[in-house]
Amino acid sequence: MNRRSFLKKSGQVGMAMSLPLPISGFNFNSSSKLQIGIVADVHQDVIHDGYARLRFFMDDMKKRQPDFIIQMGDFALPKLQNQPFLDVWNEFEGPAYHILGNHDMRDSGFTREQTMAWWGMKERYYSFDQGDFHFIVLDGNDKNPKPWSGYDRYIGEEQKEWLKDDLKKTQKPTVVFVHQSLEAEHGIANGEEIRDILEKSKTASKQLKVIACLCGHHHTDYVKEINGIPYIQINSMSYKWVGGKYKRERFAPHVENAFPWVKSTCPYKDPLYTLLTLDAYRGELHLEGSSTSFIAPTPKEIGMPNADEMSPTITERNLTFDN
Predict the structure, then answer these.
(1) Residues 102, 71 contacting (CB under 8 angstroms)
(2) Pairwise CA distance, residues 168 & 305, whole Å
(3) Domains in the chain with CATH codes
(4) 3-state helix, strand, coil in the chain (%, to 5)
């Protein structure tokens, strides 16, 4: 790539070989770094210990004090029994942002509007500036063109026009957040169309405005670069879904009865989350790594296909973006 460096080493750590100084294609005001606490796919209504997992994350964020935190969808439904869980999230004293996941609406008869109101989410898609960066949050749950069955995973015309307009208005390096991926199978159905919008948005010096796109939804860990933009999968905080065919009971009967879907997962022993550090001046994006183990039996032990590709890990990544 001659205009954008995207360097990733497979395994636990991705190392950037060089750092551009500075990014002349962007406008920025300082050399300070920006830190973001990120959690994806907690699934409070599936996992039996979602409260404890989020508590662990929040206690760490209180100590480390990132500039903001964001949850990437499939968080918690607006049930009365989930209020203590949401209260933990609301303890953060800085900005705390939400992304709508497919399980945050329709499940248990709740609507998108009910979930948004409970979270305190004013718009289903939106953008904001923080420091030297611009951030876009998309809602990948628009209605799919018919015929369609299952959960909707689409970005409709109104949102597409808003996205184009929003990108035109900024000259800052931009990070896009969306629950479902724009590049993976079973991600957003018109992901290629949305990627094209991102790729066509450039500064006056022909620099790609979008420096990364982060998503959850797939409960996996990888990064894929497409036409200069890295698409980063953030693993679930809680588990890998394996479905009814491979379900196993792991916990006490009262836990299994209270959380009947947990047997269809391979839970992670410890909560996974990450801290994203952005440095506009040096052109660097660093994603903190995190790793745990499965609560037995593991995907391999229950005979899951492609079990070797399932990992309770968020890989450390150090990516660069330059002219």
Answers:
(1) no
(2) 44
(3) 33-320 (3.60.21.10)
(4) 25, 25, 50
Give the position of tokens 């957040």.
177
Of 238, 242, 246, residue with least CA distance to 314: 238
Residue 58: φ, ψ to 5°: -70, -40
Asked if residue 145 has pLDDT above 60, the reply is yes
Tokens 């196993």, residue located: 248
Which of 54, 44, 42, 137 is closest to 98 using CA atoms? 137
* Tokens 């969808």 -> residue: 73
Res 149: pLDDT: 87
Verify cis geometry, omega within 30 degrees of 0, for the bond prior to 260.
Answer: no
CB under 8 Å to 135, separation ≥6 — which residues?
Answer: 127, 128, 129, 174, 175, 176, 177
Q: Residue 245: CB partners within 8 Å, gap ≥ 6? A: none
Phi, psi of 36 (to 5 degrees): -135, 125
Residues in the chain, how many? 323
For residue 116, count other CB atoms closer than 10 A to its CB. Answer: 19
pLDDT of residue 281: 85
Half-sphere exposure of 299 (CA within 13 A, CB side): 19
Looking at residue 106, its pLDDT comes to 78
- Residues in Cβ contact with 59 at an 8 Å cutoff, skipping those fewer than 6 apart: none
Q: What is the pLDDT of residues 222-267, one digit of tens each?
A: 999 999 999 999 999 999 999 999 999 999 999 999 999 999 999 9
